[in-house]
Amino acid sequence: MPFDYTLDFHHVDFRRQPELYRVGKGEQGVLLVEPYKSEILPHWRFRTPEVARESSEQIYGLFLAYLKAQDFVGADMARKFLQMGFTRARRYANHRGGKKYDGPVPDDKKGQSGAHGRAELPRSPEDPEKAAAAAIFKRKWDEAKLNPDYVQQMADFKARYGK
């Protein structure tokens, strides 16, 4: 099922209403789904490899805690933050300043992934520090998405909610 951007994200508590959650594709909803966004976001950093290592380990720890609590939505959100650590660090590795597309995000597309008709800016010379930070997040993201408990909880979630 695609991610549902029509929900009132300011008022939905996905811990209390997990049936409203959609896994979606990639990082969809990573900055919308509460209370998880507020629990995970303060730990999300990728400025240097050292910062990325600490951040990815903290987020992976949250991922494991959510799994242990049988909180699939929380685990999936932590997985998305690990994925976003990789993709954002790669973006900064490829585009000095982190701006990949020309022009602002259209108001009706804010919070969603994609270019939304905007042209991609040319790449800068690769920033090795950001590339190393990206690799750190990539390893933790891979570890999370292949975790057998996560895989099982995702299957159970989809079977239970059809999402």
TrEMBL record:
Pfam families xrefs: DUF4385
Regions of compositional bias (Basic and acidic residues) in chain numbering: 99-130
Superkingdom as given in the UniProt entry: Bacteria
Ranges where the record places region Disordered: 95-132
Protein name: DUF4385 domain-containing protein
